[in-house]
Amino acid sequence: MANQLAYRRVLLKLSGEALAGDAGYGIDDDRLNAFASDIAEVHALGGELALVIGGGNIFRGIDGSAHGMERATADYMGMLATIINSLALQAAIERLGLTTRVLSALEIKEVAEPYIRRRATRHLEKGRIVIFAAGTGNPFFTTDTAASLRAVEIGADIIIKATKVDGVYDSDPLLNPNAVRYEELTYLDVLSKKLKVMDSTAISLCMENEMPILIFNLLVRGNLKRVLLGEPIGTMVRGA
Question: CA 15 → CA 20, 55, 81, 217, distances in Å?
Answer without folding.
Answer: 10, 7, 12, 12
